[in-house]
Specification:
The protein is of the alpha+beta class. It has 8 helices and 14 strands. Helix 1 packs antiparallel against helix 2 and helix 5 packs parallel to helix 6. It is globular and about 50 Å long.
């Protein structure tokens, strides 16, 4: 991870970006929602197996890039659709996380935007316009959903827990299925909703007790890392190595279940992905 303060950005600069974040996310969300409401406009194509792409993905990312260029021209942007690389002041966007859901009329999708300063995630918003929910956080200042403070659950008993376990087409199925089997064996309720960003947000608000995935990209989690941490969840060392460009395994849990779920989810022994990409 980079040393802090390489960017020279001060507190006022961070607050200015935080103040702009929700408004930009809502504008992007409204554009996505217009496409979602007219499924004939989506122009769905496939980047790979279960890896959907719609016209809306590119349109939302392009809008976001314009707004950042207007408001913060010194900042860089990395997005799922148009790429980019590491930078001292970096916005990371998944214009539509859960594109497979989006393309089939399922409301479980969102716009996910994180701001990373000198390698450290500082700001995050996960906006789900079809659900009417906006998760927002700044590092050290708490997390909210629709303006109301949120907190991760206090679950201690695995037999009462719900774990969301994401699947990646970049990895062989065996380790994923093995981990799901271990989780069921521990008495967990296991689910998958096909949006990693919303999966992490749901841990932050207490709807689930953990989100795990053996490989996930930075644009899926850059916002959620801040939101979940500020809500009191525990997260593995996702921000290690070339996490911004290459991704990593992810595990987000309520504190009391960390040790058991870290082992059960197989995060420490996660296989390397075969290619980049993702929903």
């Amino acid at each position: 991870m980079k040393a802090r303060h390489e960017s020279g950005l001060n507190e006022a600069g961070l607050w200015a970006r935080f103040a702009a974040l929700a408004g930009i996310a809502h504008e992007c969300g409204q554009l996505a929602l217009r496409h979602f409401s007219d499924q004939s406009s989506l122009g769905v194509t496939m980047k790979g197996s279960q890896d959907f792409l719609t016209i809306a993905d590119g349109a939302v990312e392009a809008l976001f890039r314009r707004r950042i260029a207007e408001a913060f021209p010194e900042d860089s942007v990395m997005g799922e659709e148009m790429g980019g690389g590491d930078a001292a002041r970096l916005w990371i966007i998944d214009p539509i996380d859960g594109t497979a859901n989006f393309a089939r009329g399922d409301r479980q999708w969102c716009v996910s935007i994180g701001f990373v300063l000198d390698g450290v995630p500082e700001l995050g918003v996960i906006h789900a316009p079809a659900l009417g929910e906006t998760f927002l956080a700044r590092r050290g200042h708490g997390a909210t959903m629709n303006g109301v403070p949120i907190k991760a659950a206090s679950t201690h008993d695995l037999r009462r827990s719900t774990v969301e376990y994401g699947w990646s087409p970049r990895l062989p199925a065996g380790p994923y299925l093995d981990a799901v089997g271990r989780l069921y064996g521990l008495g967990c309720n296991v689910k998958r909703s096909a949006s990693g960003a919303l999966g992490i947000a749901h841990v932050a608000i207490g709807r689930t007790d953990a989100y795990g995935e053996l490989h996930i990209n930075s644009w899926d989690v850059a916002a959620g890392l801040v939101i979940a941490t500020e809500a009191g969840a525990r997260i593995n060392d996702f921000c290690s190595g070339d996490w911004i460009t290459e991704g990593n395994p992810i595990l987000v849990t309520v504190p009391a279940l960390w040790d058991t779920l870290f082992d059960a989810c197989g995060i420490a022994a996660a296989p390397k992905p075969t290619k980049m990409g993702g929903a």
